Each structure stands twice: as C-alpha cells, then as structure tokens.
Amino acid sequence: MRIWPMRATLAAVTLLVAAALAGCGSPPGPQRIEITIHYSHFDPAQLSVPIGVPITFVLVNQDPIEHEWLLGDDAFHDRHRTGTEPHHAGRPTEVSIPALATVETTITFDAPAEWQYICHLPRHEAYGMLGTLRIN
After folding, report:
1. Which residues share a beta bridge with 108?
2. Mean pLDDT, residues 27-46 taken together
3. What is the pTM of this model?
4. Which of 84, 67, 46, 75 is nearest to 125 (CA)?
5. Residue 105 and residue 117: Cα distance in Å, rounded?
6. Would you list the domain boundaries of the chain?
7. Does residue 15 carry a pLDDT above 50?
8. What's the mean pLDDT in 52-60?
9. Three-state SS at 136
10. pLDDT-based confidence at 85, cuts 50/70/90?
11. What does the DSSP assignment read for 10-66?
12. What's the CATH class of domain 31-135?
C-alpha cells in the first residue's frame, strides 16, 4: 500500500475545503458603536454601518442636561421637529438619554439609506446636534 499519494490527496482535499469555506464568508456579527454627547454635539457625527447586521448604538450623554437621539429620514425628522413627544421609549430609533447617562439601542437595517440622527429638543439641532448615518 502506498501511503504518500494518499496523504498528498488528503492534504489537497483539506486545502480545497478550507479555501472553499474561507470564500463563503459568514456575515459579520453584531457590532457596537459608541456615540458620545458632549457640549450638545454628537461624536462621531458621521457613521457608516452595514445592512443586515445588528448594530448596538451606545449613547453616552456626558452633558448635565437630557438629550434625545432620533434616527430617520427627512420626513421622520419633519414630524419630530414640532416636539410633540416629551420622552421617547420603546422604539429603537427614538431614544431619550437622561443627563450623565448611557443608553443602548439595537437596530438591524434592511436597506441602504442615508439617515440623520438629531436631537430635537429646543434649539439643539440649530446648535449643531446632528449627525449622518450611511447604511450600505
């Protein structure tokens, strides 16, 4: 019995299987992105996230006042600029963040888009409390 050709064949098959599995690639796992609020500004103010991956946004409010993080398209923000909701809860794209607190929200995006995150408390958006999220 010739062992060398059998070992070579086994090694070749193992390499082919490993290469095939590496090429398949599994989808990326959940991601965590920290957004810091300081002096009524979001940092970072520009983000990019992938489609189909759960993203946990960790919202760290370093200010001694409450803020909100509202994420959506132009129509969404037009509705919120009137300030009809004093507090946001239960919707992952609408988050109230108490003073000096950290809040987390998790979102999985299913389509490409470019949305903004804005604090619509009085004068906060005009002061520059907004950012852009690209979903691709």
Report:
1. 54
2. 92
3. 0.77
4. 67
5. 13
6. 31-135
7. no
8. 98
9. coil
10. confident
11. HHHHHHHHHHHHHHH-PPP--EEEEEEEETTEEESSEEEE-TTSEEEEEEEE-SSS-
12. mainly beta
